[in-house]
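Quick one: structure tokens for this chain, please?
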Amino acid sequence: MTVFDLINKDIACSCGKTHRCDIEKLEIGEGVLEKLPQLLEEKNHILLVADSNTYPLCGDRVKVLLGQKLENVCYFETPGYYLVPNEDAIEKIESFCTDKTDFILGVGSGVINDLTKYVSFNKGIKSGIIASATSMDGFASSGAALILKGMQVTYTTHAPYMILGDTNILKDAPLDMIRSGYADIIAKYSALCDWKLSALINGEDFCPEIYKIMLDATNEMRSLAKDLNSRCPYVVGKLMEILVLSGVLMTFGNTTRPASGSEHHFSHYFHITGLIENKPFFLHGTDVGYTTIKTAEMREKIRKIAKPEFIAVSKETREDFYKKIFGNYAKEVISLQNSAGRYDNPVFDKYIYNWDKVLDILAECPTSEEIKAMLTDAGIDLSAFRKLYDEKRIENGMWFAKDIKDRYSILWLYFDLFFAKEVLNSKD
């Protein structure tokens, strides 16, 4: 079963739910950009959104293909590498929309896709994306990851009406972007483990069918890693399919669980603190690949514990760390955690009662050495992680990356087991 078999139809599942992802047009392959006029033949007032990195790839060709259907072009000049999906970017796209605009078409990957989904959803119209690189897995997701008031926030919007991945474009993307998408898939080992752990500890909804489809696809991509470096069109196309599949499965479950867990929270932490401190960070997929190694190391450390002991941490202590790490945005983190209430309702008893099951779930995730080998097979430089992020920044992420999200993961268990012992007691 491929991603093409799962879209735009009701899928009756053994979990008891009916899943659906309304992507009406999906094209992946060589030369599929030329199908654009047919794919959008019912649209008449299209807004094109691109930036200075993505427009040169096919922007002029898109203008020719759409002809008079192209109403406007929203172009972002992006000095450096990144367009930030913040209030300013949203406002700029909205300023190019008119009363007649009936479709927003992005050329890009993560950020532009999120922005076009968000604005189009609020405008009550549809959106589509022409992929510029296989760099991340959010193409088909209904979520839009934005940075508002300095904090990473994911809004539920809608899946794109159309996704187009032309391998003639995708294979020529920078290798670090291709590798980033591959690393984002390898990160699913960590995310899926977190999902199963949360189902055990928190009773969170869990779909074994979605879990299996994502795990099987991750294993398939792992087997193709070495061929990515040759820019093989088939392998790059297969990577694009699995990245889209990841988003479809998130939409199926109405949750990011099939694709995002502790490793993503860790990555978001580096992104947010990088923006706060004006420090660099990796492409998102690359980041989650590196942080998958870190979360695997955490699981290995926890698995050595036969009888767990937990020490609660005071609110005052936590908030002091928030202020040191997040600066002026600490109040947003405090507000989020006060609302989430996880610290007020610890699950220590559930851990102890289910400890053998916890250890069994953690053992299902590949080891840190296995994850390292998977990333190395794709040509990812493992030494770059510690060259870019200093030890203190990594350590703070291990303890507090979880606090920028209201989502349970292995980071919570790790904090409950080790923070008081290793950080607070070491200061005594």
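The CA atoms of residues 221 and 239 lie 7 Å apart.
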